[in-house]
Structure formats: C-alpha cells, structure tokens
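INTERNAL AUDIT FORM
Audit reference: QA-55
Scope: verify that the stored structure record matches its stored sequence.
Auditor: D.O.
Record contents follow.
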Amino acid sequence: MKFKKTKRNSYGSTIESLSSDLLIEVLTRVASSSFTDLFNAKLRNFLEASKDTFVMKNISIEKFPTIPWWQVKDEVSSFLKACKESGNPEVLYRQGMMEFFSWKKVESEEEYLKRAMEMGHMEASYVYGIILLCKGGDSNEEQGMKLLNAVKKSRKLGECRKRTRAFTLSMWIRNPIVKCQELTSYHANTCGRRNNGGIGGKRGWPWIEDDEDKDVEEVNYCEACIWDDEVSLFCKLFR
C-alpha cells in the first residue's frame, strides 16, 4: 500500500512540476482528438491550462451536433462561444454556415468562413469557393477555383461533399444558394471540351461513394467547366 501511495504522489508531483507552456501543449494535443478527454482532466494545473485560448482554438467539437446554439444548454452554448472567440476553425465554419444559409447574414458569413478557411478547414474552403463562384466576376471566379483546386489536391473533395450535405440537412434553409446563370450559359457555349457526360451530365453526383474524387479527375473538361458543374450539383441540395 505504501508503494502505491508513493507512486501516486510521485506521479502527481511530476505532472504539477511541468511548465504552463508544456501543459498547454499536452492539453492541446488531447483536445484536438477528443473534448471528452479534456473534460476528464482532474488536476488543478490541468484545469487551469485547459482554459487557455490555444487549447480552445484546437479542441475537437465533432461530437457536438450541428444545430443552432440557442437550442442547446447554457453550459454547451458558453463552451462553444468560448471556442468561437478563441478562433476554433470548426466552430467558425459552423457559425458561417448557419449565418449564410439559415440566418441570411451574408456579410458575417463570409467573415467566419474565410477565417476558418485561412486556418485550413477543408469544408470551409469548399463552401466558400462555391459561394465565390456563385457570385460571379473574374476575381471571385479566380479565387473560388483556387480554393476548390486546393480541396481537390488534398484528396478531400468527396469528404467535403458528404459533410456539407449532412450539415445542410440539419439546418432550416432560408437562404438557398443561387448559381450565376450568365456564366453557366457562356461557358457551355464556348468551351470546346464540354460534352454531355461528366459530373453534371449522365452520371450525376455519387454522394455515397467512397472515392468521389475520381469524378473530377476522369472528366475531360476544362477547369472552369469542372467547377461550374460542381456548383450546379451543390445548388441542387437546396431544391
């Protein structure tokens, strides 16, 4: 019994002797994979370090449902608010999605999605790229295709489609995204490589397949046509 007690004290002393910076680094790695493990921290030093902004920024909230925060308990709402204020990319992405598609706050939506995108959030990059293409204009098109190409290069396109679709199904859509028809008709008439097959043709968009990234690679379209069809299929989510 004395041996066990000595081991516990030694362990506790070792943990408590760690610097604040090291504790924060440890907790950040824990939080990035599971917020449950973070909440299970018992030592006072761990509890204090868990409130650090860097930890809140990197904590995983995947187990939280994607629903409006005013429908959840005060404790959960306060936690998510703290994550948002700390710049958690997943929280910023969810906030941006809700503000654009449900609350019609277009300007603030762009702020949240752009911040999440700049932190490397793939779904935010995907949705923000789609929105830019829907707006039309050379500058928006160029930036939108650049974002979507980055998603494609990361081999995350199929995953982004699935997760975005799941998110939209959990929301009350009040601001469905609309495609710029003028750009669509112009491209359909001028692109010599466009045909009746491909993503927007007979095959459609196989949401449930595991390797959807092949869709983009196998189509003999120009780059603009590929993403033009991607936008068309994305917009069908809201019909």
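Auditor finding: record pair retrieved intact. The chain is about 65% helix and 0% strand.
Action required: none
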